[in-house]
Amino acid sequence: MKKEILITEKIRKFKINEFIEAEDVVINENPLTLFINGYQFLTLMILKENLEELITGFLASEGLIEKRQDIKNIIFKNNKTVALIEIEEDFHPNDYKKRTLTSGCGGGKTFINLKDSAEAQEIKSSQQYPAEKFTVLMQKMQQNTNYFQKTGGTHTAALANAEKIIYQLEDIGRHNALDKIIGRALIENINLKDKIMLTSGRISSEMIIKVLKQGIPFLVSRSAPTNAAVKIARDRNITLIGFCRGQRFNIYSGEERIMLV
């Protein structure tokens, strides 16, 4: 058991009109405060794993970088609860005061505004996949969730192609998990223009925008989208799938990329 990730707690269970003394494994939630070019920006509540991927993906999602090389340095302090980040571009924290703190979970934070949505690129991809591909990939992602299976306390995101899941990562927040996937792709210089992004979490507007900014044509969730997410998906021609469970799913946009075989 990873000491920094999983914690065993003594608990009391109730079952059939009886209290039972027991132990339960819970996820360890930690703060990570980001300083960017000397300015304290924000604190994320995170699962303390794959932190370079998280930071890289978060900065890309916020438009502060476009590629991993735009980050000059990351130094972790105080048992990896503080990250001192130096980026190439000028950073002005006041630019974020007029933005909206969106519907994060697990203490994850994302800042979006109408400009983010307006500037999100339209997906031009003509890539198509058989419908059953999405159900198979989602099942594989769920089967390989390490921390969720032990605790039920994480979200999972994964990057896939036509053949397989390339990699998947977990965090306590759905935004964080998505940022980790994006961050690793930037670190490893993976072409995302024909890839599939899978997530266990709800699809809200900022989740769609994160994916759109990377040009990913497919976003697939086990959960539901919001109406704002559906509108953006249709406006920007991304294939959005929700409630992907078992042998079924709902298609909210981009159905022309999904084939029956």
UniProtKB/TrEMBL annotation:
GO CC annotations, alphabetized: cytoplasm
SUPFAM superfamilies the record matches: Cytidine deaminase-like (SSF53927)
Keyword Cytoplasm assigned: yes
InterPro entries given in the database record: Cytidine_deaminase-like, FdhD
Keywords on record: Cytoplasm, Molybdenum cofactor biosynthesis
UniProt-annotated location(s): Cytoplasm
Chain residues that bind Mo-bis(molybdopterin guanine dinucleotide): F243, C244, R245, G246, Q247, R248
GO biological process, one term: Mo-molybdopterin cofactor biosynthetic process
GO molecular function: sulfur carrier activity; sulfurtransferase activity
Pfam family, one: FdhD-NarQ
Keyword NADP: no
Primary location: cytoplasm
Active site: C105
Matches recorded under PANTHER family: FORMATE DEHYDROGENASE, SULFUR CARRIER PROTEIN FDHD
Function of the protein: Required for formate dehydrogenase (FDH) activity. Acts as a sulfur carrier protein that transfers sulfur from IscS to the molybdenum cofactor prior to its insertion into FDH.
Family: Belongs to the FdhD family.
Protein name, as recorded: Sulfur carrier protein FdhD
Source organism: Halanaerobium congolense
